[in-house]
């Protein structure tokens, strides 16, 4: 039986780890925006 390789998360656009080429350092990927006061509750 041939075993299928799992999709590479970098290339799989349904993966939560996929970063689109149009995304950049200024893209907001977490809402609400993390600040010093709300970071501890998020982490």
Kindly describe this structure:
There is one protein chain. With 43 residues, the chain is low in regular secondary structure. It has one helix at 39-42. The protein is elongated. The protein starts with 38 loop residues before the first helix and ends with a helix. The model has no long low-confidence stretch (mean pLDDT 77).
Total beta strand runs: 0
Output mean pLDDT. Answer: 77
**Overall outline:** elongated
Q: Alpha-carbon distance between the termini?
A: 43 Å
What composes the largest sheet?
none
Give me the strand/helix succession. H
- Helix count, DSSP H or I runs of 4 or more residues: 1
Please state roughly what percent of the residues sit in beta strands, choosing from under 5%, 5-15%, 15-25%, 25-35%, 35-45% or over 45%.
under 5%
The amount of helix comes to under 10%
Indicate the multimeric state.
single chain
| Whole-angstrom Rg | 16 Å
Unreliable spans: none
**Structural class label:** little secondary structure
